[in-house]
Amino acid sequence: MADKILINRYASRRLYNTQTSEYVTLDEIAELIRQGNDVEIKDRKSGEDLTRQFLLQIITEQESKGENVLPVNVLTGLVRSYSTATQGMLPDFLSKSYEMFTQQQTSMLDK
User: Fold this and answer.
1) CB of 44 closer than 8 Å to CB of 35
2) Tell me: the pLDDT tens digits for 7-57?
3) Which among 12, 16, 30, 89 is least surrounded, fewest beta carbons within 10 Å?
4) Distance between start and end Cα atoms, the chain
């Protein structure tokens, strides 16, 4: 697997792809991800990892465009999970569930 593409966010809030040495938009980052690339988005000055924040923003924008992938009951459950004792188990469960989904999807497409 190739290295992650590092995207720096500058104080001006512009996003800079260090691999191609050019400024990029959120839509262009989403396209990089769709093409199979992994990205890491960091604040240039502080070094803070902003990847999760920007991935959530991409999902939010896709959902608001009517490209609904996440059912309301799943979103509601995620909101509720932030205040329950099972919060710590959810990331691992979601990760493993998604991994199984992608394996089944690949298997179905190979037939």
Assistant:
1) no
2) 999 999 999 999 999 999 999 999 999 999 999 999 999 999 999 999 999
3) 12
4) 25
Q: Strand pairing of 22-24 and 15-17?
A: antiparallel
CA-CA-CA-CA torsion sign (35, 25, 59, 62): negative
Amino acid at 28: E
d(Cα 96, Cα 94) in Å, to the nearest integer?
6
d(CA 19, CA 39): 11
Per-residue pLDDT for 2 more than 80? Answer: no
pTM of the model: 0.80
